Amino acid sequence: LGIEKRYKVKTDDILAGKKAAIKKFNRGLNRVESQKKEIKENMGKQIENLKSYSKGIKSQLAKKQRRLMDASAEIVKRETTIKSLKKKIKELEGKD
Predict the structure, then answer these.
(1) What are the φ and ψ backbone dihedral angles of 33, each rounded to 5 degrees?
(2) Is the dihedral of CA 7, 8, 14, 15 positive or negative?
(3) pLDDT digits (tens, 9 = 90+) for 42-79
(4) Which whole-number Å values give the CA distances from 14 to 24, 27, 46, in the listed order?
(5) Element (H, E) at 9
(6) How far is 87 from 96, CA to CA, in rounded Å?
(7) How far apart are CA 63 and CA 72, in angstroms?
């Protein structure tokens, strides 16, 4: 009891421990860098997909706007025809 056992640590052992710790740290760092690269690539793909999707939606919207404008023009045309026909009917009724 009361006897302390002292271990002698060699400089080589300390250096070996530090080298092992650095090696382990570098492996973890490489793993993180690899994951970062993978995430960046995936985000790039997602951005391209979203751009393509957005382009498709814009194209569909443009088509629908054209159809709406065409339908609106057709409505105006038919309303004009109806007014013209009503006017002719009144004229014909007035002649009788």
Answers:
(1) -60, -40
(2) negative
(3) 999 999 999 999 999 999 999 999 999 999 999 999 99
(4) 15, 20, 48
(5) none
(6) 15
(7) 14
Residue with tokens 């490489």: 30
Please give the backbone phi and psi of residue 8, each rounded to the nearest 5 degrees, phi first. Answer: -90, 125
**Angle of CA points 32, 34, 35, to nearest 5°:** 65
Q: What is the token pair recorded at 65?
A: 């706007």
Which residues, other chains included, contact 66 with Cβ-Cβ below 8 Å and sequence gap of 6+? none
- Rounded to the nearest integer, the mean pLDDT of the chain is 92
Measured between alpha carbons, how far is 84 from 96 in angstroms, rounded to an integer?
A: 19
Q: Say how far residue 13 (Cα) sits from the centre of its chain.
A: 53
Provide the residue type at 25 as one letter: F
Instruction: Give the CA count within 13 Å in the CB-facing half-sphere of 75.
Output: 6
For residue 21, what are its two tokens? 């710790």
